[in-house]
């Protein structure tokens, strides 16, 4: 690793960690100089204690939520990319389907989640459906935009050489779309965690979303904050995994962006 890359890595890790330290320090200062009750805002130390003392409970419920997120996230990627390919392949399909793609995001998830529960029961399926519904939209839209971003001159050259539509998609359009696809997948990674919590609020007997409801009824605020910290950690880990995969698969893209910044 070169010195420049090492410095960039330190900055990329140190900057968000330093900001988090400042936020926690400000949080602790607010608790120290105000009379806010612990039931409204626990101190950072109380949340840390709850994370340790309730680690078994948090882990058991976190594993349930992680499985839901991974399955729903994978379904969102498949649905989003597949729908984008179909829409891009036919202009008539795009005119007919794209507006309804937008409408699907205007319906509140909390309104349709109970319908999924009625259809499928209280097992994994309604959670996956909710997560996929929340998460697939940015994948689909970014993939559609990416497919349209292919170099027109390259497409014309491929047509001149007699390339089929499938060959043009494989050679020119998919590579051009990959940065946009990953942008949508990164957004979906964050949304999938939100979708899992919504799904568990509607109908679940375990999971971190369900645990938040139980702790809220018990006014166990420190434990609620600890659960939120775990949820945030899951979201950060999933986003980081997608970012790492993007860097591995698209080194040319990140190398070009780094060169522009330098």
Automatic annotation (TrEMBL):
Localization in the cell: Cell membrane
SUPFAM superfamilies per the UniProt record, alphabetical: MetI-like
InterPro entries reported for this sequence: MetI-like, MetI-like_sf
Residue spans crossing the bilayer: 9-30, 62-86, 98-122, 128-150, 171-204, 224-245
Keywords: Cell membrane, Membrane, Transmembrane, Transmembrane helix, Transport
Gene3D superfamilies tied to this protein: MetI-like
Recorded coiled-coil stretches: none
Predominant place of localization: membrane
Residues of the ABC transmembrane type-1 domain: 62-249
Protein name: ABC transporter permease
């Amino acid at each position: 690793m070169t010195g420049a890359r090492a410095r960039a890595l330190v900055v990329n890790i140190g900057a968000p960690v330093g900001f988090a330290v400042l936020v926690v320090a400000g949080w602790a200062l607010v608790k120290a100089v105000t009379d806010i009750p612990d039931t409204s805002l626990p101190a950072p130390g109380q949340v840390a204690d709850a994370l340790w003392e309730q680690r078994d409970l948090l882990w058991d419920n976190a594993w349930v939520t992680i499985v839901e997120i991974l399955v729903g996230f994978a379904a969102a990627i498949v649905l989003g990319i597949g729908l984008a390919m179909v829409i891009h392949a036919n202009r008539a399909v795009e005119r007919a389907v794209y507006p309804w793609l937008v409408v699907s995001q205007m319906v509140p998830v909390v309104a349709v989640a109970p319908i999924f529960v009625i259809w499928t029961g209280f097992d994994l399926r309604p959670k996956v459906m909710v997560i996929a519904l929340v998460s697939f939209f940015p994948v689909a839209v970014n993939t559609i935009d990416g497919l349209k971003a292919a170099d027109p001159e390259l497409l014309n050259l491929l047509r001149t050489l007699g390339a089929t539509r499938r060959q043009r998609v494989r050679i020119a359009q998919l590579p051009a779309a990959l940065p946009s696809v990953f942008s949508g997948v990164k957004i979906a990674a964050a949304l999938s965690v939100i979708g899992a919590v919504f799904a568990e609020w509607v109908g679940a007997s375990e999971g971190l979303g369900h645990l938040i409801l139980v702790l809220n009824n018990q006014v166990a605020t420190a434990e609620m904050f600890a659960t939120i910290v775990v949820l945030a950690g899951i979201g950060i880990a999933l986003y980081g995994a997608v970012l790492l995969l993007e860097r591995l698969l698209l080194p040319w893209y990140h190398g070009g962006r780094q060169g522009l910044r330098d």
